[in-house]
Protein: Pre-mRNA-splicing factor 38
Amino acid sequence: MADEGQTALVQQNATKILQNGSRSRERSEIIEIEVAPEMTVTPSNLHPAKKPNAKCKFCQRASKVCKAAAAPKKGKEEARSEAAPSDTSTSMWLILQEADDEEDYSRRTFNCSPILKDQILGSSYFKSMLQLTTIDEIIEEIKNYADTLDVYNSGSSTSPSNFVCQVYRIFTLPEAEDLSQLQVILENPTPIVRCAGFVYLRFVVPAAKLFEKFEEYLFDEMELKYQDAGRTVTTTIGDYVEGLLGKEKYFNRPLPRVPVKVKQQLERELAPISQYRKRMEAHMKHNIKKIAGTPVEVFHDGQWVPGTAQDFTGKHVKGRKVRVELDNGQEVNVHMGKVPRRMLSSVEEEVDSSRCMLIGQTHRESKAARHGSSED
Structure:
């Protein structure tokens, strides 16, 4: 009887061991299934209230699964960090890498507050503008009915001005998908029409592309007059554009947010702009006609670099920008304000001497003509 009792006890113990083993395998399989998709170390079901046990074989197995799943992600991050340049002079390159390589404004967004957008769409004036379907019609509308550059009418914070409604109507035109179609607005002889184009760009163009789009107009000396809080403000298009780039608010209304990196780059570009304008004015005063082949030094990527001037260029006013071939073979278009006047002294002297020679020759010819007539 004793032998039979011992045999039964051994069989019971064996059955418990087998059952515990199967449960353990089930627990380990659950750990593997749950951990792999989550990419995180999940505590073992054997002790869920504690941290993973380094000596536990199930915790070790779960940890290995997580490490294997996270390994490819780490490799991608290292490759990205190795590809990015470390030089601080390439900060704008890094900023532009964050923007799309190709500008696609077919899915453009007018980055104003939802409240302002609802107020514009609910405005009776904006609804009346829906019958205007071409850019030329919008231009005439701005000339005739834009009485302020403010976002709201005077004394109101709920009634959008005609000006901002006209800007939003430009946004809704199919032609606005191609920014080149808006040059007729940006280069219009009427200052307030040009301002509508600039405000449109500020609310639509990505932050990383703002300076590229506005740089051409920072040196524009066209006079601009507008009303602000009942007083007449007189400024220039260049100053107006600088305010759109450098300030966070427009008539005390928030402009689209600019990321910190882009803002820092804009501040560096705008800091010496007054000096560039004075230099530009001096160049325009001397009216240099020929510049090809002139050795120059230009401010590029935060430093002065030597190069050779090729020709004048520029979209708005020909002569404001010059195409320069740097000594390293790179070609850049820079404003004349970034070219020191001393570098063009030889060109100015040549122009002055040519003028003197022409004046002297004309004087001699007229004198000879008078002498011949007196002999007759």
Q: What stands out?
A: Residues 2-38 form the longest helix (37 residues). The domain at 286-349 is CATH 2.30.30.140 (SH3 type barrels.).
